[in-house]
Structures are given as structure tokens and as C-alpha cells.
Structure prediction request, 39 residues.
Amino acid sequence: MSKERNTRKDEKKKPQKTQKEKRREKQEKKKGQNPLHAG
Prediction:
């Protein structure tokens, strides 16, 4: 139970993207297909 609590705390502490997401975003930008401007 304490383990679950810890993971939740960590999630709250750093709501930033994972390395994979960051890398993918970079590649998308390189291609000129920024998901933010796709909509």
C-alpha cells in the first residue's frame, strides 16, 4: 500500500514528460509536424 502511495506522490512531484515522449516530440518537430499545431 505504501508503495502505491509513493508512486502517486512521485507522479504529483514531476508531471513532466518521459524521455520517450520528449524524444518523439523532438522528432515530430524535425519533421515539421508539431502535434500542438496539428489541430
